[in-house]
């Protein structure tokens, strides 16, 4: 049995959760989804009986665009017998009457957030957490006196975190369980703060660099997926700079465009793990925000990179552009220029491996590459 509850009640209680909290004592509910609510109620541990603790069959709890009170969350997580999936999505889109609480003691940035998660340490297999809009985040507090707490989630296999989540700091301290198989990182909180400016151009690289910092600190690495909320982050990562654009991009980014990608992929590959990159895409021309109600389209995650195919990004093989050792080998061969690139000279470079295979431009366009001129 499942229930889905969306906020927006009567005017004075538009986002209040309140008495709906009774659902967490329901004897047959197995799946609960709550969106656009202030996830809080006047229920404390003192009002919960011993018989009610670990008594319900709830298996999954999903919070979407909610302001989460960590003390109430702690009470809620004391009730299920064996919760398997928990997804906590705090508000990325806030407006009057639903701003996150500025009192940091109530927020998931506090050590008691992990204490609440440990209520289901014996059963939790999938955990997702997004802290919400960056401008409303409060100071992160790590529990220095309770190290290795997150490691107590001994059955956790899949961990999905917003790049701003306080739980990222636990990973850097090697505080995560040996059962963990996959870490997925999302960038929605950072992406919401960027405009189409220099910050937008830097964004993909900044996300990759931050993930590399986290991964390097993890004593036992795991496979890593990164999902960009922007539908076209690969437009920046897969750009082949030509002419004046080359100098502009390198100056803005402080180095090669794909350097952060290769650095992260190399870190993981050297330790026997894999990196995959995804973007969220809407098939229509319209985009929507969670919780995707009233027939709104849900974005699909589209993979555009896999470190198992190290140099290929969005279908393009960038080895001849980015691999300096390979470039040295190519220079030993007769220089070829394909007919399509010849038409664009001067100021255009035909990037090819010198062995007659398609140049990077023809490969990307799906054209047959004909070489008619020797340079």
Description:
This protein is an alpha/beta fold. The protein folds into two domains: 1-180, Leucine-rich repeat, LRR (right-handed beta-alpha superhelix); 196-314, no CATH class. It has helices at residues 70-76, 112-117, 167-172, 188-191, 198-217, 234-237, 244-253, 259-269, 319-322, 324-331, 339-342, 360-365, and strands spanning 2-6, 31-35, 38-39, 60-68, 85-90, 126-130, 158-162, 182-186, 223-228, 275-281, 300-306, 312-313, 316-317, 336-338, 371-374. Strands 1, 2, 3, 4, 5, 6, 7, 8, 9, 10 and 11 form an eleven-stranded mixed β-sheet that branches.
What is the helix tally?
12
Q: In the CATH scheme, what's the topology name of the largest domain?
A: Leucine-rich repeat, LRR (right-handed beta-alpha superhelix)
CATH architectural designation of the largest domain: Alpha-Beta Horseshoe
What percent of residues adopt helix (DSSP H or I)?
10-25%
N-C termini distance: 70 Å
Based on CA atoms alone, the radius of gyration comes out at 24 Å
Order of helices and strands: EEEEHEHEEHEHHEHHHEEEEHHEHHE
Name the structural class.
Answer: alpha/beta
Uncertain parts: none
The biggest beta sheet is recorded as: 11 strands, mixed
Tally of structural domains: 2
**Number of DSSP E strands:** 15
CATH class of the largest domain: Alpha Beta
Mean pLDDT: 88
How much of the polypeptide forms β-strand, as a percent range? 15-25%
Per the principal axes of the C-alpha atoms, what is the gross shape?
elongated
